[in-house]
Specification:
By secondary structure, the chain is an alpha+beta fold. The protein is built from two helices and seven strands, in the order βαβββαβββ. Helix content is about 20%, strand content about 45%.
Length: about 150
């Protein structure tokens, strides 16, 4: 369920902005927009990379929605960019249940603290949605961590 390791993510995606509280409405529309723009395989692994909310006053944020890609794509579609994220990440992997997203984040943060690490507050949060044979996606949430030295 929980893992800690060095990861590298190559994401071909588009940037979207909006109020954090409106993400449940904005994200499904962004998914459809991305699918219309993406020229790759229909069974791509979807990824959302979020700007972390820094304070209660921070009400508008951005996220990148896209596909995980191996290496460099031949051609980057219009209005898309290739992003690379790397470092030491803690992660949780669970069958997707949108009603439990807050619970998944809480469990991951608690595990990180228990391991003696800290979430990097300035780094993006990464969600990977992997297709499965059952039709239910497998969700992986990644948080970049800093190891606390004693």
């Amino acid at each position: 369920m929980f893992h800690k390791n060095n990861q590298q993510f190559n994401v071909l995606g588009k940037k979207y902005t909006g109020k954090f509280e409106e993400y449940p409405i904005i994200i499904p529309k962004a998914i459809e927009d991305f699918r219309e723009s993406y020229r790759g395989d229909d069974s791509f692994t979807r990824v959302i990379v979020y700007e972390p909310k820094k304070s209660p006053e921070h009400t508008v944020g951005y996220f990148y929605l896209g596909a995980l890609v191996e290496g460099e794509p031949g051609e980057v579609p219009e209005k898309m960019n290739l992003f690379q994220y790397e470092g030491e990440f803690a992660s949780i992997s669970v069958p997707l249940d949108l009603t439990k997203m807050g619970e998944y984040y809480d469990k991951l943060i608690n595990w990180i603290v228990k391991e003696g690490d800290q979430v990097d507050p300035n780094y993006h949060l990464i969600e990977v949605y992997r297709p499965t044979n059952t039709g239910q996606e497998q969700l992986e949430i990644y948080m970049r961590i800093n190891t606390v030295k004693e």
